[in-house]
Amino acid sequence: MPEKHPPKHAANEPAGNAQEATSADESTAAVVSVDTAGGAMEPSAVPATAQSGQLPGGPDTLLRRIFTGSGMVSVLAVLLALIIGGLLIASTDERVATAAGYFLARPTDFLTAVWDAATRSYLALFQGSVFNPRGNSVAAQFAPFMETLTIATPLITAGLGVALAFRAGLFNIGAQGQIIVAGILAAWVGFALHLPLGLHLLLVLVAGIIGGAFWGGLVGLLKARTGAHEVILTIMFNYIALYFLRYLLNTPAFQRPGEANPISPILDPTAVYPQIFGTQYRLHLGFLLAIAATVVVWWLLNRSTVGFEFRAVGANPKAAQTAGINVSRSTILVMALAGGLAGMSGVAQVAGTEKVLTDGVAATYGFDAITVALLGRSTPWGTFAAGLLFGAFRAGAVQMQIQTGTPIDIVLVVQSLIVLFIAAPPLVRAIFGLNPRRRKPARAARSREAATTGGAA
User: Fold this and answer.
1) pTM for the whole thing?
2) What is the spatial distance between Cα 335 and Cα 161, in angstroms, rounded to a whole number?
3) Distance, CA of 72 to CA of 225 (rounded, Å)
4) pLDDT, tens only, 381-440
5) CATH label of the domain that carries residue 222
């Protein structure tokens, strides 16, 4: 049989196409380089991006975004505050003062003493807030971490309330008062009513959230209807709530029978948050509710229409109103939700930690929540992480003072420094050399070099 041969064009076409594609790729990827010896111009196999010092895809741009972003600035602000706090700790240490007396003769002794003083205090802070290797059992070793989570619970929920208002362009300085009002209602439901376990605890939680939402929503209503500034309103409402609480604790309805001090009766066992890991730790159900609240706030801001309206109002109220968003309704709603979140902190204090109502139910959680929200950049998970950090500061401060004699107030100094640096991101970037403006000349030079090379080609 005659042998069949494929058509020539069918056999040669793939080869020709491959050669054309190869030559096209080479012409695209090649960069013309000048031979200084003979003046001839030969194509180079090195891509232009590699010759200019950049990799395809711009990883240097990605790294620049990471190291100059708001999240990295927050981390560096904490680091810078810890460094300055360490120097302040060293300034009060006796061994540092002694070594400073002969600094010129032996400077290494002074530097070693400074390092030892700071690391001893921070190690004690770590052991009092995260892990204590000196514990007699595993439960005792992890007890500091459980205490950190317990203290962080009201900070997280109150911080979420402040952060939510921040995202809508409102300054909720009234978390302190919202915690107090929530604590009043939750405590009354807890000791005045006698109900089954599940129902009683649910009513305590709902009463606290409603109390905080009412106190925050009232501020939003006054701002929306009268134009009063929310900062002034919330500060005044804090004092109203505090003095109203002190009044109630001296009335028969709230004061414990036979007690001269302003303290309420103990809440019923059915109205108390159950402890997650048993009686050996104080960690209670409120921490799980704080995690759930963080998820809900994240979904609300990033996945819901209401959250989009909040963010639009926070970005530009006039533009949002022009787009058809009811700014007054958003103001009232966001302040009510913020108050409800802060109210969860009041319930956590009354039903989870203290189990009674006193005039110190809010402690300073409402004001610390502002710092937590700022450090978390008003994002739900950032606020959650900041709440854990500040909870660790509070939990470890006592152990730090016991082991090293460092005053507890140094923790307040570190927290204040964190707020200072968070409020000045350009300062943090300048200290660590991460200012994006410094990179613009180098980027422009690379662009000119690439343009010159392309023109030569």
Assistant:
1) 0.80
2) 8
3) 40
4) 999 999 999 999 999 998 899 988 888 888 889 988 988 898 888 888 888 887 655 545
5) 1.10.3470
